[in-house]
Amino acid sequence: MSRFGINLATRPFRNNVLHWAGIVLAAAGLATFTAYNVRTYTQTGADVAKWDGIREEQHTEFARLSAEVVSMTQTVTRLDLKSLSDRSSFANGIILSRLFSWSDLFDRLEKVQPENVRLRSIRPVITKEGTEVSVDALTRDYDSLLRFEASLLDSDYFSFVYPLQESSKEGQGEIRFNLAFGYIPEGKAKAAQRRLGPGAPADGAASPPAAPPDPNAAGAAPDAGAPAGPAAPRQDGAPADGAGKGAR
Q1: Is 248 helix (H, G, I), strand (E, B) or coil?
Q2: Which fold has domain 102-211+222-247?
Q3: Picking from 94-98, 159-163, 194-198, which range would have the lowest pLDDT averaged per residue?
Q4: Spatial separation of the C-alpha atoms in residues 153 and 35, rounded to whole Å
Q5: Looking at the chain, which runs of residues are DSSP E strands?
Q6: What are the pLDDT digits (tens) for 31-82?
């Protein structure tokens, strides 16, 4: 017995489930992609606005700093740097002068000054590098002058000595001379220890080597404060003065 396929519907039957499912999925993907694009666009716009603001702030700060640099450059160009340097040096000199002890200098000069030497003026020049003293003095003989130089060199508080000027007063028998010498208020040993560091030995750090004894010298060198007399002629005292200078 055979069957006959009779379709009584007004239109043919079609299964559209797959088509609608594809359309729904495509619509959902499109909506998701659109939402992502909108979110990304919004966030990017906010970031661009933020960086634009930062750039504007940096431009404003750069303009302000440039104006300050120009203003400071104009101010510096109007300054008298030489005058400021002179004022600074003068102020430093005043500070160093307040720390300088005149009484100590007078006491130490009195110990090395021979009897026949009279000091007329004392002019110290105080700097950060050290102190140099210039003296204007009178003496009656060259032997006292040489003994004064040797005593300065033998002292622990005076370093170098060099003459500046020398002249004789006619009719008065006096010799006028000018000397310049270095002054070390703290002493040579302490100054050397300060330069070398705290671990350096305090004794003998700045002591010069002892000169070999002169076999022709008759006894010890004369005292710096003793007057010159016939018992100490000039030729006998010359080697001692020379040895004292050579040791320095």
Answers
A1: coil
A2: Alpha-Beta Plaits (3.30.70)
A3: 94-98
A4: 98
A5: 117-126, 131-139, 158-169, 174-183
A6: 999 999 999 999 999 999 999 999 999 999 999 999 999 998 888 887 777 7
Candidate from 106-110, 168-172, 215-219 with smallest mean pLDDT: 215-219
Q: How far, CA to CA in Å, does 233 sit from each of 8, 28, 63, 85, 139?
A: 164, 127, 84, 53, 16
Instruction: Kindly state the tokens that stand for 219.
Output: 């006894």
First to last CA, the chain: 149
How do the domains of the chain map onto residue ranges? 28-70, 102-211+222-247
| Count of alpha carbons within 13 angstroms of residue 82, beta-carbon side | 0
- Indicate the pTM of the whole model: 0.42
Token pair listed for 217: 């010298």
Residue 102: pLDDT band (50, 70, 90) is confident
In the chain, the amino acid numbered 138 is L
At 38, which amino acid appears? Answer: V
In sequence order, which residues have a C-beta less than 8 Å from that of residue 240 and are 6 or more positions away? Answer: 150, 214, 217, 221
